[in-house]
Amino acid sequence: MKVLVINCGSSSLKYQLIDSDSEAVLAKGLCERITIDGSVLTHSPAGKDKVIIEQPMPDHTAAVKLVLNQLTDSVHGVITSLSEIGAVGHRVVHGGEKFASSTLITDKVIAAIEECNDLAPLHNPANLIGIHACEECMPGVPMVAVFDTAFHQTMPKQAYLYGLPYEYYEKDKVRRYGFHGTSHSFVSKRAIELLKLDRNNSKVIVCHLGNGASICAVKNGESVDTSMGLTPLEGLIMGTRSGDIDPAIIDYIAKKEGLSLDEVMNVLNKKSGVAGLSKVSSDFRDLAEAAESGNELAETTLKVYAYHVAKYIGAYVAAMNGVDAICFTAGVGENNSQVRSMICEYLGYLGIVMDEEANKVRGEELMLSTQDSKVKVMVIPTNEELAIARETVALVK
Ligand code: AMP
Fold it and tell me: Based on the domain organization, do 274 and 341 belong to the same domain?
């Protein structure tokens, strides 16, 4: 079956057409600046030249139509008719406590996703727009919602409750939800498979280190704790997000700098993280370059970053009373051997022995620890689109 995977943002739409039998990507692309001037579609069909189409996309339906036209185009297309698309899988950011797994989209499901809008006001409405646009352009084609939060719904109360008045949980659903669930699920499953672990007796820690970053403790195949919380701001230091801070800093900065609450939140989301700390960039390639050329603040930033990841690993070893494997994934985790090495320097107490030669490789599945290392350390490239396609097929077949 051919599955169209859609990841819809407020002004962008990423897509992949995946053949679920061979798991090959037939085409992928990105619509940018939807609803604003200068809309552009970049379409990359497998084995053919990339095309860039600058054409107004006044709404997401126009964007979906343009994508479908390209997929079936006689020159740039990869299918002859839309009837070849058997299902559509949508990434949906927040499923609250309503969705513990992926689900076939119905009117009821759409209403339930809408009820989670408050929890992800920037993302869920955009995801819903993508669902409606696809319904309009491909009526009758089954669609599935795959939630970033669903994998973490197995967390026990002690992991998801905050030390706040309980009524905020009861009334307002304030709790840890966690994100990147599709990635944590995909990578932990693959680790269990590669290491031939008994799923029901396995302990895996997944470090998803990209521009957004989170870490997850996966016990017996289920998420038991994760670093992102009510929103994706909590936890590790990220590209531009602060991660964990003393909550009193918000009030302190607001008063010191004369900023409104919204402005401070903007600083925490967009101007902090390694970008804010280093004054260089949110991109780890720039950071590494700066550190190498003697920029002390960039070097310190890398140290702070690695230290925070190592602290979380320690916490999750404690939460699971042990660990079999630690996996690195996403842009930084897959490609940045220096950061991996800096993190693993803290982990000798686990009996980890790193194979520094293997650690020089990047971007592919690999074992970073030696054969006699007590705990295995691996790189497992994430593939959220493939995970969404697999979930979609499982529900529509
Ligand atoms: P993601 O959000 O998963 O796309 O990850 C983005 C981050 O991955 C950025 O900070 C990049 O610097 C980092 N990254 C991507 N490719 C490389 C690479 N080849 N070497 C080092 N870092 C990389």
Answer: yes
